[in-house]
Amino acid sequence: MIVGIGTKNRAKVAAIQHIVDQYLQDVEYIQVAAASNVSEQPFSNEETRQGAINRAINTLEEVKADLNFGLEGGVHEIGNEMYCTNWGAAALKDGTVISAAGAQFLLPEEIANELRAGKELGPVMDAYTKQQDTRLGAGAVGVFTAGLVDRTEMFEHIVKLIIGQYLFMHRK
């Protein structure tokens, strides 16, 4: 089976490979930097979900794999509070798209205000942590959960939901 991965982000790639390897056999991976066709900083569940779906479909169009993944992180507000939200999708050759959402967690107000001012979470987190490429490792979730959950683990849950739906659809 060929699996297309619509990102070069190592945290997302690790999540996909770790979960897929547990449930599917004889897998060959092809990675591409698939476009999300949404804002650099998605600002709703709908936009974040659409970004994941777009990445999955764009991966399918480029790679033509059996199973094509797109993962997207974004934010959304409930009242005066801003939460990180994360979505994933898989596009199949027959046109089927499977999607799922994962953990959501509250962002501190100082981070939320930076995003409301038009900044993207990745660079804001780099400035906040005084590190580079936070999004490739622990991510905001790792920082704001005291390291209990990192970005790979957060996306693994989403990939597992997608693989579970895929296996359910293809049960014999």
Structure in words:
- The structure is a single chain.
- Helix 1 links the parallel strand 1 and strand 2.
- This protein has one domain: Alpha-Beta Complex (Maf protein), CATH 3.90.950.
- Strands 1, 2, 3, 4, 5 and 6 form a six-stranded mixed β-sheet that branches.
- The protein is of the alpha/beta class and 172 residues long.
- The protein contains six helices and six strands; from the N terminus they run E-H-E-H-E-E-E-E-H-H-H-H.
- It is globular, with a radius of gyration of 16 Å.
Please give a handful of descriptors for the protein shown.
172 residues; alpha/beta; Maf protein; 6 helices; 44% helix; nucleotide metabolism; metal-binding
Provide the fold topology.
Elements: E1 2-5, H1 10-23, E2 28-31, H2 45-63, E3 67-78, E4 81-92, E5 97-101, E6 105-106, H3 109-116, H4 121-129, H5 139-144, H6 151-169
Parallel strand pairs: 1-2, 1-3
Antiparallel strand pairs: 3-4, 4-5, 4-6
The coarse overall form would be globular
Largest sheet: 6 strands, mixed
End-to-end Cα distance: 17 Å
Percent helix: 40-55%
Secondary-structure element order, as H and E? EHEHEEEEHHHH
Number of domains: 1
Residue stretches low in confidence (pLDDT < 50, at least 5 long) are: none
Brief synopsis:
This protein is α/β, with parallel strands linked by helices and 172 residues long. Helices cover 44% and strands 23% of the residues. This is inosine/xanthosine triphosphatase.
